[in-house]
Design brief:
Distance between the termini: 52 Å
Structural class: alpha+beta
Strand content: 25-35%
Oligomer: single chain
Radius of gyration: 18 Å
Length: 122
């Protein structure tokens, strides 16, 4: 009986983790879609997402570089408003299709998955 309850507990934890992960994935996609709607030059495009993950290896100087590169991109508008910087970010890879062209970008979001901090073209 004890092994059965351990298996049940593990199964419940796995389901909870999956449901929470799906919620964060949906939040990340929604934040990036809103960001693209506001900041992308084109209005007729489609997007697809990879799963989300987290990182601690993105320094403030890397974020500054990504923001500077984005400011020089013809694909995005000027004067993009970003979230502040942090020590850990959530990221997702996004494929953006405009007409016949597809580009891949990585978007870094704040730990609350509420704002884009920076992005880069892959």
């Amino acid at each position: 009986m004890r092994i059965s309850s351990i298996k049940t507990t593990i199964a419940c934890l796995a389901v909870t983790t999956l449901v929470c992960g799906c919620g964060k994935q949906h939040e990340a996609e929604s934040v990036v879609k809103d960001f693209l709607e506001t900041n992308l030059q084109a209005s007729d495009y489609t997007v697809s997402f990879s799963g989300i993950d987290s990182t601690r290896h993105v320094t403030d100087s890397v974020v500054d570089k990504m923001r500077a590169d984005a400011a020089n991109s013809k694909m995005f508008k000027r004067g993009i408003k970003y979230a502040g910087t942090d020590q850990q970010y959530i990221y997702t890879k996004v494929k953006i299709c405009i007409g016949g062209d597809t580009t891949s970008h990585t978007f870094y979001l704040d730990p609350k998955v509420s704002q884009v901090v920076a992005f880069k073209e892959n």
